[in-house]
Design brief:
The complex is a heterodimer. Chain A is mainly α. Helices cover about 70% and strands about 0% of the residues of chain A. Chain A contains eight helices and no strands. In chain B, strands 1-2 form a two-stranded antiparallel sheet. In chain B, a hairpin with a 7-residue loop joins strand 1 and strand 2. The chains are: A mainly alpha, B mainly alpha. At the A-B interface, helix 2, helix 3, helix 5, helix 6 and helix 8 of A face helix 1, helix 3 and helix 4 of B.
């Protein structure tokens, strides 16, 4: 249960209070960011369960390294950067694991796609079905397009903030967003 | 003014939407869109896509997420507190020390129970054994005769050396009343010259 008095505090005030050992400020940070981060990492990995583990690790890192945060950057940028780095590490790990599992597979064996248990397509309304199709197309994009599309179009972060989170130039972010959107549009052409 | 191609329109479209283009460029793109069916479709689809993406529902968060997280935090805090046996100078090299100890025990065990390594007599006999394996026809006494030969040669050398030492001793002058010293010559190191060091004699 979070402290209601902290609801109106800015992120920077919360982290400052947390740096002075106010645990309720940390709980408020968790309540404020858990949904956003799980959404970001979950869409990036296309796996909600793993996303929860990664976001948990993100908060634990914030807890352990609370004194490393300096108010030169926005707190949201800092926490998104931590989550993004952990998610990319996980993606690399998955890529390596997939590489070895494919190379070890025999010639006659078929590549079965594991269905995502969290999404029951039949029960979705038409609108949700379109969204799921779009999400599936996003999942097929290269990571560098996927992360900017999620941060910009799903999470609604500013280009400047995305640039800081990903540590890439502003122009690159804009270009990636544009190219990513164009690619999804081409993939979805005629399907919707 | 060059004509706008559809590719150029697609590339500049995001900037066009964000209102980042200068008025002249914007006017050119607008003009192209009015005439091009493909770019009209592209603009419409892009708007629809952004709309869909904005309305994407958030993923559900497990109701136990916060509880699990705070439990981890608590565990971490407890881990920070020093245990009672903290005086024991262990953990940093624990793995290395354990590995070394295991290797040592295995080494001792191996040396103790390996028959080839532990029985020294068989090693002493090994030259004969190897010879037997390589040349079974050679008699075992052969090495002994070789040792006898070497021993005889050594005796000869020893006797010769003794003779030479005797010679030197005989040639040395009587030490009493003389202060001469013996210096070996170049052609025969055993022959010595007498050099008088007494102040009164030449």
């Amino acid at each position: 249960m979070t402290n209601p008095l902290l609801k109106d505090c800015s992120d920077e005030v919360l982290i400052s209070r947390f740096q002075n050992d106010d645990l309720s400020a940390f709980e408020e940070i968790v309540a404020r960011y858990q949904g956003q981060l799980i959404n970001f990492v979950g869409r990036l990995l296309n796996d909600r369960i793993t996303a929860e583990d990664i976001v948990q690790e993100t908060f634990l890192r914030v807890y352990r390294n609370k004194h490393r945060y300096k108010e030169i950057a926005k707190f949201s940028t800092w926490i998104y950067t931590i989550a993004g780095n952990l998610a990319r590490t996980e993606l690399r790990r998955l890529k390596i694991r997939n590489f070895f599992s494919i190379s070890q597979r025999g010639e006659g064996e078929k590549d079965y796609e594991i269905p995502d248990g969290s999404i029951d397509v039949e029960r979705q309304t038409e609108g949700n079905l379109v969204q799921e199709m779009v999400m599936k197309e996003i999942a097929k994009l290269p990571v560098y397009f996927r992360e900017v599309i999620i941060l910009r179009d799903v999470q609604d972060l500013s280009y400047e903030e995305i640039s800081k989170i990903l540590n890439v130039p502003l122009g690159t972010v804009k270009s990636r967003v544009n190219r990513g959107r164009t690619q999804i549009q081409k993939q979805l052409k005629g399907k919707i | 003014m060059s004509a706008v191609r559809c590719e150029d329109f697609e590339k500049a479209f995001a900037g066009f939407i964000r209102g980042e283009l200068d008025p002249a460029e914007k006017a050119r793109l607008e003009a192209h869109r009015r005439e091009c069916r493909h770019c009209q479709d592209f603009s419409r689809e892009a708007s629809e896509l952004r709309e869909v993406l904005h309305q994407t529902p958030e993923l559900e968060v497990s109701p136990y997420f916060t509880h699990q997280l705070m439990r981890e935090v608590k565990r971490m805090e407890q881990g920070k507190q020093k245990p009672e046996w903290d005086w024991f100078p262990l953990p940093r090299f624990a793995a290395l020390t354990t590995g070394f100890a295991v290797a040592l025990v295995l080494g001792i065990f191996f040396l103790r129970f390996n028959p080839q390594m532990s029985s020294t007599p068989s090693m002493v006999q090994s030259p004969g054994t190897i010879e037997d394996r390589i040349q079974p026809g050679i008699e075992r006494s052969a090495p002994k005769s070789a040792v006898n030969q070497t021993s005889g040669r050594f005796d000869e050398l020893f006797a010769e050396t003794e003779t030479r030492v005797d010679t030197i001793e005989h040639r040395l002058p009587e030490r009493a009343g003389s202060s001469s010293i013996a210096i070996p010559t170049d052609d025969d190191p055993w022959r010595i010259n007498q050099v008088s060091t007494s102040s009164g004699e030449p």
